[in-house]
Amino acid sequence: MDRIAYLFVLVLCLAARSINGEDPYLYFTWNVTYGTISPLGVPQQGILVNGQFPGPNLNTTSNNNVIVNVFNGLDQPLLFTWQGIQQRKNSWQDGMPGTNCPIPPGANFTYHFQPKDQIGSFFYFPSIDLQRSSGGFGGLRVNSRQLIPVPFDQPEDDYTVLIGDWFSKGHVALKKILDSGVHSIGVPDGVIINGKSAPQDKPLFTMKPGKTYRYRICNTGVKTSLNFRIQGHDMKLVEIEGSHTVQNIYDSLDIHVGQCYSVLVTANQDPTQDYLMVASTRFIKKLLTATRTISYETPSPKLPPSIKLPHEPPLGLDWSINQFRSFRWNLTASAARPNPQGSYHYGDKAIDKTIRIFNSGGVVNGKHRYAINGISHVDPETPVKLAEYFGVMKGVFEYNVMGDGVDPGNGSITLQPNVFNEKYRDYVEIVFENQEKSIQSWHLDGYSFFAVAIGTGKWAPEKRASYNRLDAVSRNTIQVYPGTWTAILLTLDNAGMWNLRSENLERSYLGEQMYINLKTPENSLRDEYDIPANALLCGAVVGVPKPQPYHQ
Fold this sequence. Notes:
Shape: globular
CATH architecture of the largest domain: Sandwich
Number of strands: 33
Number of helices: 5
Strand content: 25-35%
């Protein structure tokens, strides 16, 4: 087909979509390769997307159809997951080892997902083993449609800030350490901001005097909570993981692994001075700090940033817990609602079930493992979603091997796939209880949940009196401090197989994760999409006849 004919066909296709009222399509091609990077000033091998580290920003709008064709140029299998994108009825595109067969080296796979009724700041990353520790991550933003008002004026520009701890050893070496079963990967070697730990020749961002800018800050690291601040500038919090917030002012923010915050910053300081963005470690003994430069656009000669870093946040947990409690959902803002939770007063709805999650660690067969309620998850060769769909669960996994409120006080741990079969549309309370000395961070794919409370000590039913039942922020990742519990509320109304995991990659790789399965008996496209035509097959489903497709 010549170029003119191709363009004619393309125009016809786009016109047909417009007539049918289908949402716009955005197409991306990603080539994933290894390359040399120097985050801490020393060359090492990293994972690049289209030659970039971090990877390119994926910029879309509510309800757009996002098509990402991923070519795997690594020497290992590859998957991508879309942190915070809810994939309504579509866990087939979740990109986790429990939902998708990996993309083999030298092959490609095309993802198709839609941020349905969703806005906000998120990120993507490779989800197999510890690949995220070598890169492959990037920012993912979902903009509001033009007809939906945003509760602040249009900023002058919109910047993505990816902060995280960093290890000088690559993901292969870190995996070998953990596979030995004896040693931890330890404390990180440094902290990075957008791939570097120190100012470069050019400022990372520039601002015009008097103008206001949006900064989307995500902690894409491996295991460490970070505090973020901008020298001389206040930050007005406007969004957390897809929810507009009450616009409080902060001079620094604790951002835990896997979390994304969005702030407005006004360029109201001396324009002849450069300023530092600072990310430093929290809740570990070793203080590690990264800095990058922000410059004002002005013809005046520039003075270097002050060598004195912005203040450190107060020590201890209380300051951080109180900051969490200051976050409030903006109930007056017009915005996309990710699911029907926004249509009722969540605090008044009766709880159908309580699930208590206890994280723990121990030794199994001479090797260290982590567990949820005594079960340390192991990914079978056949993804659990495919095994369930093709009806070959026997020999792959069993449902509900984990109790929903069992405190493994005896320290016993069992290795097996951990899949919890739950009742569709139940309104559930999930309580994370952390009696260890390290901070935890938890993420649930496919959902936003209401983070209603953090409390010290052990949880009990009477603790519900302390819940925020009015304006808790709807989000997808939540921290659990040492010696505390965290409670969330959500409706299990998104059919599919969804991963609940520790955002600490060391812990999730060694078993601190599980899958929540939500299945309706009708196999109806009203509730869940059918398996995509291009789905990769592996393990026990290879050669198995495909089931009857889901019906309308």
